[in-house]
Amino acid sequence: MAGKSTESPVRLAAETWESLFRAQVAVMRKLQSGPAFRKLAVNEYDVLFTLSRCPSGWLRLNELNDNVLLSQSSLSRLVERLEKRGLIARMPAPEDGRGVLLKLTDEGRELQKEIGREHVRDISELMGPALTPAEQKELMRLTTKLRSSLGPRPPRQDPR
Amino acid sequence: MAGKSTESPVRLAAETWESLFRAQVAVMRKLQSGPAFRKLAVNEYDVLFTLSRCPSGWLRLNELNDNVLLSQSSLSRLVERLEKRGLIARMPAPEDGRGVLLKLTDEGRELQKEIGREHVRDISELMGPALTPAEQKELMRLTTKLRSSLGPRPPRQDPR
DNA sequence: CCAATTTAGATGCATTTGCATCTACCGCAA
DNA sequence: TTGCGGTAGATGCAAATGCATCTAAATTGG
Description:
Chain A is mainly alpha-helical and 160 residues long.
């Protein structure tokens, strides 16, 4: 019985979060320094990626904002940049005069795929040696469960 | 046997990483918007926290940089700000004329503890309802293992 | 229906960040 | 010793970010 036997639930939660956070930092640092993100910052790629997964093709700006760790104003300007680069297109939302809908342009879709291929390869080169497939599945299950419990906005299910 | 049975290892790794990443984003968003971080940004708190865990009390700037998702120059300036606010102190490294050692001031330690208490409470309010203690332990194990496998720099073990 | 409140997104402005570069120092090798 | 590549941090500068605020449109309450 070592020193950790009197671990409180609060402490356990804090250490778990720290471990999750540090792992994310370590992986992200490796990913973003790779050659995949020469043309586009990670946040920018993430927007293209999210749009590419959207079944209708169109996504509201505010929904996008749930996915990304950026303030509303920063996302607004990031999207503005992507539009200027011809990677996404905007359209006023038909049912809500305040809203804006976004979708990938052909060029944006192309770039997303190109970066995505390399990105996925990088990821699997980091995760593969680190965790067995069963462990990866379990990690996915736990993080998905964690995210689901945080609502109120449920992690928008996205039937391919 | 549902449609995912033909999942490739590469795809599994990518989906696992995405799940981990989104969970981190979702939790972090809640944490950083809370009242705990009114006085200090999360990154700044994180530096104080890391210093507070350092057994010797002193830590090299470049070691700190492994922990945080910031470029070297950004961390350099962040530290400069913290020093200006009287929260940390610098000292030239005794054995390496290029290096800088950092430690908390009393005021910095005080503020870290104050924010830390609230922060830990917030974390456990998010994690507690989401995952059982056993699940949290497993999540911690998996993320620790992931991080350990990324080396070369091993996650500096820190015997309290 | 109208006024008041709320929500979506854009924008001014100060702060923070990253890239490139610079300086100083270390370690190594001739 | 001297010179040479490599590492630790600092700094100029442009770009990105966040806060506060603004406008416009939707929603709510009377």
